Amino acid sequence: MGDLELYLLVSDHWKADGGLMFGVVPKILWEKQKTADANNMIDCACVGLIARKNGRVIVCETGIGNKLSEKRARQVAQREPEGLLDALQRLSIRPEEVDAVIPTHLHWDHAGGLTRRNETGGVELTFKNARHFVQRSEWDFALRPDIRSQSAYITDDFTPLADGNRAVEFVDGDTEVLPGVHVRLVAGHTPGSQVVIVRSGELACAVTGDLVSQRPHLKVPWNMAADLDPLRVFEEKARLLDEAEKHRWLLVLSHETDQPAGYIEESGEWRPEPRLA
Ligand SMILES: [Zn+2]
User: Fold this and answer.
1) What is the CATH number of the domain that holds 247?
2) What spacing in Å lies between the alpha carbon of 96 and ligand 1's midpoint?
3) What's the pTM value of the predicted model, to 2 decimals?
4) SS (H, E, C) 248-275
């Protein structure tokens, strides 16, 4: 895309409860698009982006990572705990060569890969030389979450970025964190959720995070039960989808398993980008 090299990053395959994914949308409607298993779990992926621009490597989203307990990994049917580093390795990128890491928010299924469990059982940064860009409002909330959000944040995922390291850069609102790499504060799902937008001239690719989790969530009022502020989600989602359609932005959906990168047609239809399948 212009002077950008983009690679889809699928770091994990796992399962989430259908009710969690679709909130108040009746199952009779969502199950036409996503099949639930006997435990009402539906297939999910953790989807992000690896971008190369001006010799820099930027990783957007890090997935679940390798720190889940065996029990928890089984509960969510996590399949590839080393998927993040495997994906980079396929591009011949070593973790220490990554310059910037941008999780959309700090929930365990997006920030888990920021740190990893090493051979001696300790927790270390996955990308030791990278700057990590996080909204300050997200960081503050993740350290003191409300009672409903407590299970979604695991401090080992992110506190090592600040404790004994100076790897995190706090962002307040919409910011160009690197030339051509923007974050947009959308909040809604969590107080500091951000969309990452990488640009090359007129072209742009947006990593949506849980603002648009899967293809059924392209319908504005279809949102996740986990959203803290659904009305804000609807507002920001409508705005993003409108821009994406008008300016032909490429979108990357955070948990879609089937062709998660694509464009919005004028009709509202999803047109997958076959080169990022
Ligand atoms: Zn998520």
Assistant:
1) 3.60.15.10
2) 26
3) 0.96
4) CCEEECCCCCCCCEEEECCCCCEEECHH
